[in-house]
Protein backbone atom coordinates (compact mmCIF):
# COMPACT_ATOMS: atom_id res chain seq x y z
CA UNK A 1 0.00 0.00 0.00
CA UNK A 2 2.76 2.53 0.91
CA UNK A 3 4.42 1.91 -2.44
CA UNK A 4 1.17 2.76 -4.25
CA UNK A 5 0.57 5.88 -2.15
CA UNK A 6 4.06 7.14 -2.94
CA UNK A 7 3.84 6.19 -6.64
CA UNK A 8 0.51 8.02 -6.87
CA UNK A 9 1.99 11.22 -5.51
CA UNK A 10 5.31 11.03 -7.36
CA UNK A 11 3.82 10.26 -10.77
CA UNK A 12 0.70 12.44 -10.63
CA UNK A 13 -2.08 9.95 -9.97
CA UNK A 14 -3.44 11.13 -6.61
CA UNK A 15 -2.46 13.93 -4.21
CA UNK A 16 -3.63 14.61 -0.64
CA UNK A 17 -6.49 17.14 -0.89
CA UNK A 18 -5.53 20.84 -0.45
CA UNK A 19 -2.06 19.70 0.54
CA UNK A 20 -0.35 23.12 0.69
CA UNK A 21 -2.86 24.06 3.43
CA UNK A 22 -2.11 20.96 5.45
CA UNK A 23 -4.71 18.74 3.80
CA UNK A 24 -8.06 17.40 4.93
CA UNK A 25 -8.33 13.92 6.34
CA UNK A 26 -10.09 11.50 3.99
CA UNK A 27 -10.02 13.91 1.03
CA UNK A 28 -7.87 13.39 -2.09
CA UNK A 29 -7.30 15.19 -5.38
CA UNK A 30 -6.69 13.33 -8.63
CA UNK A 31 -3.71 14.42 -10.74
CA UNK A 32 -3.20 14.25 -14.52
CA UNK A 33 -2.66 10.47 -14.73
CA UNK A 34 -5.10 9.48 -11.98
CA UNK A 35 -7.94 11.37 -13.56
CA UNK A 36 -7.39 9.47 -16.83
CA UNK A 37 -7.31 6.10 -15.08
CA UNK A 38 -10.46 6.99 -13.14
CA UNK A 39 -12.14 8.21 -16.32
CA UNK A 40 -11.31 4.94 -18.11
CA UNK A 41 -12.81 2.89 -15.27
CA UNK A 42 -15.98 5.00 -15.30
CA UNK A 43 -16.16 4.79 -19.08
CA UNK A 44 -15.92 1.00 -18.87
CA UNK A 45 -18.76 0.97 -16.34
CA UNK A 46 -20.89 3.27 -18.50
CA UNK A 47 -20.30 1.13 -21.60
CA UNK A 48 -21.08 -2.23 -20.01
CA UNK A 49 -23.84 -1.34 -17.55
CA UNK A 50 -25.61 1.37 -19.52
CA UNK A 51 -24.67 2.10 -23.14
CA UNK A 52 -24.51 -1.50 -24.39
CA UNK A 53 -27.79 -2.49 -22.75
CA UNK A 54 -31.21 -1.90 -24.21
CA UNK A 55 -32.89 -2.18 -20.79
CA UNK A 56 -30.83 0.46 -18.93
CA UNK A 57 -30.96 4.27 -19.03
CA UNK A 58 -28.31 6.63 -17.75
CA UNK A 59 -28.89 9.72 -15.66
CA UNK A 60 -27.11 12.24 -13.47
CA UNK A 61 -28.83 13.62 -10.37
CA UNK A 62 -27.77 16.60 -8.26
CA UNK A 63 -25.52 16.20 -5.23
CA UNK A 64 -27.57 18.47 -2.94
CA UNK A 65 -30.90 17.05 -1.81
CA UNK A 66 -33.47 18.21 0.78
CA UNK A 67 -33.60 16.69 4.25
CA UNK A 68 -36.85 14.93 3.52
CA UNK A 69 -35.21 12.67 0.91
CA UNK A 70 -32.90 11.33 3.60
CA UNK A 71 -35.68 10.98 6.14
CA UNK A 72 -37.60 8.90 3.60
CA UNK A 73 -34.58 6.75 2.71
CA UNK A 74 -33.92 6.09 6.40
CA UNK A 75 -30.48 7.70 6.35
CA UNK A 76 -31.14 10.47 8.93
CA UNK A 77 -32.12 7.77 11.39
CA UNK A 78 -30.12 4.71 10.39
CA UNK A 79 -27.04 5.76 8.43
CA UNK A 80 -24.85 5.61 11.50
CA UNK A 81 -21.67 4.12 12.88
CA UNK A 82 -20.88 3.53 16.57
CA UNK A 83 -18.35 6.07 17.84
CA UNK A 84 -16.09 5.83 20.90
CA UNK A 85 -13.81 8.48 22.37
CA UNK A 86 -10.37 7.93 23.91
CA UNK A 87 -10.51 9.32 27.47
CA UNK A 88 -6.85 10.39 27.36
CA UNK A 89 -6.62 12.40 24.11
CA UNK A 90 -10.30 12.63 23.07
CA UNK A 91 -9.60 11.17 19.63
CA UNK A 92 -12.68 9.46 18.19
CA UNK A 93 -12.86 6.12 16.43
CA UNK A 94 -15.32 3.59 15.09
CA UNK A 95 -16.14 1.14 17.85
CA UNK A 96 -16.61 -1.69 15.33
CA UNK A 97 -13.07 -1.50 13.92
CA UNK A 98 -10.92 -3.44 16.42
CA UNK A 99 -7.71 -2.95 14.40
CA UNK A 100 -8.08 0.85 14.60
CA UNK A 101 -8.81 0.71 18.33
CA UNK A 102 -5.81 -1.55 18.95
CA UNK A 103 -3.54 0.74 16.89
CA UNK A 104 -4.61 3.72 19.00
CA UNK A 105 -4.13 1.87 22.29
CA UNK A 106 -0.55 1.08 21.31
CA UNK A 107 0.07 4.76 20.52
CA UNK A 108 -0.44 5.63 24.21
CA UNK A 109 2.41 3.32 25.18
CA UNK A 110 2.42 2.87 28.97
CA UNK A 111 -0.84 4.67 29.84
CA UNK A 112 -3.95 2.61 30.35
CA UNK A 113 -6.67 3.75 28.02
CA UNK A 114 -10.29 4.26 28.94
CA UNK A 115 -12.99 4.48 26.27
CA UNK A 116 -16.34 6.27 26.38
CA UNK A 117 -19.54 4.31 25.86
CA UNK A 118 -20.28 3.93 22.09
CA UNK A 119 -22.44 6.75 20.72
CA UNK A 120 -24.48 6.68 17.53
CA UNK A 121 -22.86 8.91 14.90
CA UNK A 122 -24.64 9.91 11.69
CA UNK A 123 -22.50 9.91 8.54
CA UNK A 124 -24.51 12.37 6.45
CA UNK A 125 -22.76 15.64 5.59
CA UNK A 126 -25.06 18.62 5.96
CA UNK A 127 -24.92 22.18 4.71
CA UNK A 128 -27.30 25.09 4.22
CA UNK A 129 -28.81 26.79 1.18
CA UNK A 130 -30.33 30.26 1.28
CA UNK A 131 -29.23 33.87 1.68
CA UNK A 132 -30.30 34.55 5.27
CA UNK A 133 -29.97 32.69 8.56
CA UNK A 134 -33.75 32.59 9.09
CA UNK A 135 -34.70 31.23 5.69
CA UNK A 136 -31.68 29.02 5.06
CA UNK A 137 -32.69 25.45 4.45
CA UNK A 138 -30.80 22.44 5.75
CA UNK A 139 -29.74 20.21 2.85
CA UNK A 140 -27.49 17.17 2.65
CA UNK A 141 -24.66 16.27 0.34
CA UNK A 142 -25.84 12.86 -0.77
CA UNK A 143 -24.56 9.96 1.32
CA UNK A 144 -25.11 7.59 -1.61
CA UNK A 145 -26.00 8.33 -5.23
CA UNK A 146 -28.85 5.80 -5.13
CA UNK A 147 -31.53 8.17 -3.89
CA UNK A 148 -31.08 10.53 -6.85
CA UNK A 149 -32.27 7.68 -9.07
CA UNK A 150 -35.25 6.67 -6.91
CA UNK A 151 -36.56 10.23 -6.68
CA UNK A 152 -36.49 10.37 -10.49
CA UNK A 153 -38.12 6.97 -11.00
CA UNK A 154 -41.42 8.57 -12.08
CA UNK A 155 -39.68 11.07 -14.36
CA UNK A 156 -37.92 8.25 -16.21
CA UNK A 157 -41.15 6.22 -16.41
CA UNK A 158 -43.09 9.18 -17.82
CA UNK A 159 -40.42 10.30 -20.27
CA UNK A 160 -38.96 7.01 -21.52
CA UNK A 161 -41.94 4.60 -21.07
CA UNK A 162 -39.74 1.60 -20.30
CA UNK A 163 -41.01 -1.98 -20.14
CA UNK A 164 -40.21 -4.05 -17.05
CA UNK A 165 -37.64 -5.02 -15.99
CA UNK A 166 -35.45 -1.97 -16.61
CA UNK A 167 -32.57 -0.15 -14.95
CA UNK A 168 -31.23 3.33 -14.33
CA UNK A 169 -27.47 3.77 -14.00
CA UNK A 170 -25.50 6.70 -12.72
CA UNK A 171 -21.98 7.76 -11.69
CA UNK A 172 -21.30 10.56 -9.23
CA UNK A 173 -19.90 11.87 -5.98
CA UNK A 174 -21.10 10.80 -2.55
CA UNK A 175 -20.11 12.19 0.84
CA UNK A 176 -19.83 10.49 4.22
CA UNK A 177 -18.52 11.93 7.43
CA UNK A 178 -16.49 8.78 8.06
CA UNK A 179 -15.22 8.68 11.66
CA UNK A 180 -11.93 7.09 10.71
CA UNK A 181 -11.04 7.65 7.07
CA UNK A 182 -8.06 5.40 6.31
CA UNK A 183 -6.24 3.21 3.85
CA UNK A 184 -5.76 5.95 1.24
CA UNK A 185 -8.61 5.90 -1.33
CA UNK A 186 -10.37 3.01 0.41
CA UNK A 187 -12.27 5.01 3.02
CA UNK A 188 -12.66 8.64 2.08
CA UNK A 189 -15.12 11.33 3.09
CA UNK A 190 -15.73 12.43 -0.49
CA UNK A 191 -15.74 9.67 -3.09
CA UNK A 192 -17.40 8.57 -6.30
CA UNK A 193 -19.85 5.76 -6.87
CA UNK A 194 -21.03 3.95 -9.99
CA UNK A 195 -24.40 2.31 -9.62
CA UNK A 196 -27.25 0.54 -11.31
CA UNK A 197 -30.77 0.40 -9.86
CA UNK A 198 -32.60 -2.39 -11.67
CA UNK A 199 -36.37 -2.33 -11.21
CA UNK A 200 -38.28 -5.60 -11.37
CA UNK A 201 -41.79 -6.89 -10.68
CA UNK A 202 -42.25 -7.79 -7.01
CA UNK A 203 -41.90 -11.54 -7.21
CA UNK A 204 -39.66 -13.82 -5.14
CA UNK A 205 -38.58 -16.08 -8.03
CA UNK A 206 -37.91 -13.11 -10.35
CA UNK A 207 -36.02 -11.37 -7.51
CA UNK A 208 -33.75 -14.39 -7.01
CA UNK A 209 -33.13 -14.79 -10.74
CA UNK A 210 -32.27 -11.13 -11.28
CA UNK A 211 -30.14 -10.99 -8.14
CA UNK A 212 -28.07 -13.98 -9.31
CA UNK A 213 -27.67 -12.58 -12.78
CA UNK A 214 -26.51 -9.14 -11.57
CA UNK A 215 -24.10 -10.79 -9.13
CA UNK A 216 -22.52 -12.66 -12.01
CA UNK A 217 -22.58 -9.62 -14.31
CA UNK A 218 -20.88 -7.46 -11.66
CA UNK A 219 -18.18 -10.03 -10.96
CA UNK A 220 -17.46 -10.46 -14.70
CA UNK A 221 -17.26 -6.70 -15.04
CA UNK A 222 -14.82 -6.47 -12.15
CA UNK A 223 -12.61 -9.19 -13.65
CA UNK A 224 -12.64 -7.07 -16.82
CA UNK A 225 -10.58 -4.49 -14.90
CA UNK A 226 -7.69 -6.96 -15.06
CA UNK A 227 -7.88 -8.96 -11.81
CA UNK A 228 -6.52 -12.49 -11.36
CA UNK A 229 -9.17 -15.10 -10.49
CA UNK A 230 -7.72 -15.52 -7.01
CA UNK A 231 -7.79 -11.79 -6.20
CA UNK A 232 -11.59 -11.46 -6.03
CA UNK A 233 -14.34 -13.29 -4.19
CA UNK A 234 -18.06 -12.97 -3.54
CA UNK A 235 -19.25 -12.89 0.07
CA UNK A 236 -22.78 -12.83 1.42
CA UNK A 237 -23.60 -10.42 4.25
CA UNK A 238 -24.76 -12.00 7.47
CA UNK A 239 -28.29 -10.82 8.44
CA UNK A 240 -26.94 -8.50 11.18
CA UNK A 241 -24.48 -6.93 8.72
CA UNK A 242 -27.02 -5.87 6.11
CA UNK A 243 -27.99 -2.25 5.57
CA UNK A 244 -31.45 -1.24 6.75
CA UNK A 245 -32.91 -1.53 3.24
CA UNK A 246 -31.47 -4.89 2.19
CA UNK A 247 -33.35 -8.19 1.81
CA UNK A 248 -30.13 -9.85 0.65
CA UNK A 249 -26.64 -8.46 0.12
CA UNK A 250 -23.37 -9.74 -1.35
CA UNK A 251 -20.03 -8.04 -1.73
CA UNK A 252 -17.32 -8.45 -4.29
CA UNK A 253 -14.15 -8.34 -2.22
CA UNK A 254 -10.55 -7.76 -3.21
CA UNK A 255 -7.66 -9.42 -1.43
CA UNK A 256 -5.40 -6.45 -0.64
CA UNK A 257 -1.80 -7.68 -0.42
CA UNK A 258 -0.77 -7.91 3.26
CA UNK A 259 -4.13 -6.52 4.46
CA UNK A 260 -6.78 -9.03 3.41
CA UNK A 261 -10.27 -9.12 1.91
CA UNK A 262 -12.01 -5.74 1.59
CA UNK A 263 -15.27 -4.66 -0.01
CA UNK A 264 -15.05 -3.36 -3.56
CA UNK A 265 -18.64 -3.55 -4.74
CA UNK A 266 -22.05 -4.45 -3.34
CA UNK A 267 -25.06 -6.19 -4.86
CA UNK A 268 -28.14 -5.44 -2.79
CA UNK A 269 -31.72 -6.65 -2.98
CA UNK A 270 -33.44 -3.44 -1.80
CA UNK A 271 -36.96 -4.78 -2.28
CA UNK A 272 -39.56 -1.99 -2.43
CA UNK A 273 -38.00 -0.09 0.51
CA UNK A 274 -36.96 3.04 -1.37
CA UNK A 275 -39.91 3.58 -3.72
CA UNK A 276 -42.43 2.80 -0.98
CA UNK A 277 -40.83 5.24 1.44
CA UNK A 278 -40.50 7.98 -1.19
CA UNK A 279 -44.18 7.47 -2.09
CA UNK A 280 -45.10 7.91 1.57
CA UNK A 281 -42.87 10.89 2.25
CA UNK A 282 -43.37 12.83 -1.01
CA UNK A 283 -46.99 11.93 -1.70
CA UNK A 284 -46.04 11.05 -5.32
CA UNK A 285 -47.44 7.84 -6.76
CA UNK A 286 -44.39 5.70 -7.51
CA UNK A 287 -46.32 2.58 -8.48
CA UNK A 288 -46.32 1.11 -11.96
CA UNK A 289 -49.34 -0.08 -13.93
CA UNK A 290 -48.63 -3.03 -16.18
CA UNK A 291 -50.96 -2.77 -19.19
CA UNK A 292 -50.45 -6.42 -20.16
CA UNK A 293 -51.25 -8.05 -16.83
CA UNK A 294 -53.45 -5.17 -15.61
CA UNK A 295 -51.59 -5.11 -12.33
CA UNK A 296 -50.41 -2.12 -10.31
CA UNK A 297 -47.35 -2.62 -8.16
CA UNK A 298 -44.41 -0.92 -6.43
CA UNK A 299 -41.34 -2.38 -8.13
CA UNK A 300 -38.47 -4.06 -6.33
CA UNK A 301 -34.93 -2.86 -6.84
CA UNK A 302 -31.78 -4.91 -7.34
CA UNK A 303 -28.80 -2.62 -6.88
CA UNK A 304 -25.20 -2.93 -8.09
CA UNK A 305 -23.04 -0.36 -6.32
CA UNK A 306 -19.31 0.15 -6.68
CA UNK A 307 -16.84 2.72 -5.44
CA UNK A 308 -14.93 4.31 -8.30
CA UNK A 309 -11.99 5.26 -6.05
CA UNK A 310 -11.83 1.79 -4.54
CA UNK A 311 -11.68 0.41 -8.08
CA UNK A 312 -8.82 2.85 -8.87
CA UNK A 313 -6.95 1.76 -5.73
CA UNK A 314 -7.52 -1.97 -6.26
CA UNK A 315 -6.59 -1.77 -9.95
CA UNK A 316 -3.32 -0.05 -8.98
CA UNK A 317 -2.57 -2.56 -6.21
CA UNK A 318 -3.26 -5.48 -8.55
CA UNK A 319 -1.21 -3.98 -11.39
CA UNK A 320 1.86 -3.08 -9.33
CA UNK A 321 4.66 -5.50 -10.23
CA UNK A 322 8.34 -5.66 -9.39
CA UNK A 323 10.84 -7.63 -11.47
CA UNK A 324 14.35 -7.51 -12.84
CA UNK A 325 15.01 -6.34 -16.38
CA UNK A 326 18.46 -6.09 -17.95
CA UNK A 327 19.85 -6.97 -14.52
CA UNK A 328 18.23 -3.96 -12.91
CA UNK A 329 15.24 -3.94 -10.58
CA UNK A 330 12.18 -2.28 -12.05
CA UNK A 331 8.58 -1.64 -11.01
CA UNK A 332 5.77 -1.38 -13.49
CA UNK A 333 1.99 -1.24 -13.61
CA UNK A 334 0.50 -4.18 -15.47
CA UNK A 335 -2.63 -2.19 -16.36
CA UNK A 336 -5.21 -3.48 -18.82
CA UNK A 337 -4.80 -1.53 -22.07
CA UNK A 338 -8.30 -0.04 -21.90
CA UNK A 339 -7.49 1.47 -18.47
CA UNK A 340 -3.95 2.77 -18.97
CA UNK A 341 -3.79 6.60 -18.64
CA UNK A 342 -1.36 6.65 -21.57
CA UNK A 343 -1.91 4.01 -24.22
CA UNK A 344 1.29 4.56 -26.18
CA UNK A 345 4.45 6.70 -26.00
CA UNK A 346 6.49 7.75 -29.04
CA UNK A 347 10.23 8.51 -28.87
CA UNK A 348 12.99 9.56 -31.24
CA UNK A 349 16.01 7.36 -30.42
CA UNK A 350 18.19 10.48 -30.06
CA UNK A 351 17.07 13.96 -29.15
CA UNK A 352 19.91 15.74 -30.95
CA UNK A 353 19.27 14.28 -34.44
CA UNK A 354 16.74 16.59 -36.11
CA UNK A 355 15.86 14.04 -38.80
CA UNK A 356 14.87 11.47 -36.12
CA UNK A 357 12.91 14.05 -34.11
CA UNK A 358 11.09 15.20 -37.24
CA UNK A 359 10.10 11.66 -38.22
CA UNK A 360 9.10 10.83 -34.63
CA UNK A 361 6.87 13.93 -34.53
CA UNK A 362 5.21 12.82 -37.78
CA UNK A 363 4.51 9.31 -36.48
CA UNK A 364 3.30 10.73 -33.17
CA UNK A 365 0.85 13.17 -34.83
CA UNK A 366 -0.70 10.37 -36.85
CA UNK A 367 -1.07 8.10 -33.78
CA UNK A 368 -2.37 10.94 -31.60
CA UNK A 369 -5.19 11.48 -34.09
CA UNK A 370 -6.40 7.94 -33.42
CA UNK A 371 -5.28 7.47 -29.81
CA UNK A 372 -5.69 10.79 -28.00
CA UNK A 373 -3.84 9.63 -24.88
CA UNK A 374 -0.58 9.05 -26.84
CA UNK A 375 2.44 11.07 -25.62
CA UNK A 376 5.74 12.19 -27.10
CA UNK A 377 8.92 12.04 -25.02
CA UNK A 378 12.52 12.88 -25.86
CA UNK A 379 13.82 13.49 -22.34
CA UNK A 380 16.85 11.56 -21.07
CA UNK A 381 18.14 8.35 -22.58
CA UNK A 382 15.88 5.72 -24.11
CA UNK A 383 16.25 3.29 -21.19
CA UNK A 384 15.05 5.93 -18.73
CA UNK A 385 12.09 6.76 -20.96
CA UNK A 386 11.03 3.10 -21.04
CA UNK A 387 11.25 2.89 -17.25
CA UNK A 388 9.19 6.04 -16.80
CA UNK A 389 6.45 4.65 -19.02
CA UNK A 390 6.61 1.21 -17.35
CA UNK A 391 6.12 2.81 -13.96
CA UNK A 392 2.84 4.44 -15.02
CA UNK A 393 1.58 1.41 -16.94
CA UNK A 394 1.92 2.50 -20.59
CA UNK A 395 1.43 -0.74 -22.55
CA UNK A 396 3.51 0.21 -25.63
CA UNK A 397 6.42 2.42 -26.57
CA UNK A 398 7.39 3.22 -30.15
CA UNK A 399 10.93 4.26 -31.01
CA UNK A 400 11.98 5.95 -34.23
CA UNK A 401 15.60 5.13 -35.12
CA UNK A 402 17.88 5.37 -38.15
CA UNK A 403 16.36 2.30 -39.74
CA UNK A 404 12.99 4.07 -39.70
CA UNK A 405 14.37 6.66 -42.09
CA UNK A 406 15.34 3.91 -44.53
CA UNK A 407 12.41 1.52 -44.47
CA UNK A 408 9.40 3.10 -42.64
CA UNK A 409 9.57 0.65 -39.74
CA UNK A 410 9.76 1.39 -36.00
CA UNK A 411 10.40 -0.65 -32.87
CA UNK A 412 7.35 -1.46 -30.79
CA UNK A 413 8.16 -2.37 -27.19
CA UNK A 414 5.90 -4.38 -24.90
CA UNK A 415 5.73 -3.13 -21.29
CA UNK A 416 5.43 -6.50 -19.54
CA UNK A 417 8.23 -8.37 -21.32
CA UNK A 418 10.36 -5.47 -22.54
CA UNK A 419 10.50 -7.28 -25.92
CA UNK A 420 10.81 -5.16 -29.03
CA UNK A 421 9.69 -6.00 -32.54
CA UNK A 422 10.06 -4.14 -35.80
CA UNK A 423 6.76 -3.06 -37.23
CA UNK A 424 5.76 -1.21 -40.41
CA UNK A 425 4.49 2.27 -39.57
CA UNK A 426 1.42 1.60 -41.70
CA UNK A 427 0.50 -1.39 -39.48
CA UNK A 428 0.83 0.46 -36.17
CA UNK A 429 -2.77 1.56 -35.81
CA UNK A 430 -4.19 -1.91 -36.46
CA UNK A 431 -1.88 -3.32 -33.75
CA UNK A 432 -2.53 -0.57 -31.23
CA UNK A 433 -6.28 -0.02 -31.63
P1 LIG B 1 -18.14 -0.03 4.06
O1 LIG B 1 -18.78 -1.20 4.73
O2 LIG B 1 -16.77 -0.30 3.54
O3 LIG B 1 -18.27 1.26 4.82
P2 LIG B 1 -20.59 0.27 2.71
O4 LIG B 1 -21.09 -1.14 2.79
O5 LIG B 1 -21.09 1.29 3.64
O6 LIG B 1 -18.99 0.24 2.74
P3 LIG B 1 -22.11 0.97 0.43
O7 LIG B 1 -22.98 1.90 1.15
O8 LIG B 1 -22.64 -0.35 0.02
O9 LIG B 1 -20.74 0.77 1.24
O10 LIG B 1 -21.49 1.74 -0.82
C1 LIG B 1 -21.26 1.14 -2.07
C2 LIG B 1 -19.80 1.23 -2.49
O11 LIG B 1 -19.32 2.56 -2.34
C3 LIG B 1 -18.86 0.38 -1.66
O12 LIG B 1 -18.82 -0.94 -2.15
C4 LIG B 1 -17.55 1.08 -1.83
O13 LIG B 1 -16.90 0.64 -3.02
C5 LIG B 1 -17.94 2.53 -1.99
N1 LIG B 1 -17.68 3.26 -0.74
C6 LIG B 1 -18.47 3.28 0.37
N2 LIG B 1 -17.94 4.06 1.32
C7 LIG B 1 -16.79 4.56 0.81
C8 LIG B 1 -15.78 5.44 1.31
N3 LIG B 1 -15.88 5.98 2.52
N4 LIG B 1 -14.72 5.74 0.52
C9 LIG B 1 -14.61 5.21 -0.71
N5 LIG B 1 -15.54 4.37 -1.25
C10 LIG B 1 -16.61 4.04 -0.51
Word description of this protein:
With 433 residues, this protein is of the alpha+beta class. It is 33% helix and 30% strand. It contains 14 helices and 24 strands. Strands 3-10-11-17-14-13-12 form a seven-stranded mixed sheet. A five-stranded mixed sheet has the order 21-20-22-23-24, with helices on both faces. It has a three-stranded antiparallel sheet with strand order 4-9-8. The protein binds adenosine-5'-triphosphate. Residues 144, 176, 178, 187-188, 191, 193, 263-266, 305-307, 309-310 line the site of adenosine-5'-triphosphate.
* Strand elements, count: 24
- Class per helix and strand makeup: alpha+beta
Termini separation comes to 32 Å
Note the total helix count.
Answer: 14
Rg (CA only): 25 Å
Global outline: globular
The parts where pLDDT drops under 50 for at least 5 residues are: none
Instruction: Give the rounded overall mean pLDDT.
Output: 94
- Ligands and ions found: adenosine-5'-triphosphate
Main pleated sheet:
7 strands, mixed
Note the beta-strand portion: 25-35%
User: What is the spatial order of strands in the main beta sheet?
Assistant: 3-10-11-17-14-13-12
Percent helix, as a range, is: 25-40%
Summarize the structure.
With 433 residues, this protein is an alpha+beta fold.
Present the secondary structure layout.
Elements: H1 2-10, E1 14-16, E2 28-30, H2 32-51, E3 56-58, E4 64-66, H3 67-73, H4 75-78, E5 80-85, E6 92-94, H5 98-107, E7 119-122, E8 125-129, E9 137-141, H6 146-150, H7 153-160, E10 166-175, E11 190-200, H8 204-223, E12 232-236, E13 248-256, E14 260-271, H9 273-282, E15 288-290, E16 295-297, E17 300-307, H10 308-319, E18 320-325, E19 328-333, E20 344-348, H11 354-370, E21 375-376, H12 382-391, E22 396-400, H13 402-407, E23 409-414, E24 420-424, H14 428-432
Parallel strand pairs: 3-10, 20-21, 20-22
Antiparallel strand pairs: 1-2, 4-9, 5-6, 5-7, 8-9, 10-11, 11-17, 12-13, 13-14, 14-17, 15-16, 18-19, 22-23, 23-24
Helix pairs in contact: 2-10, 3-9
The protein binds adenosine-5'-triphosphate (ATP).
The site of adenosine-5'-triphosphate has 16 residues, from strand 11, strand 14, strand 17 and helix 10.
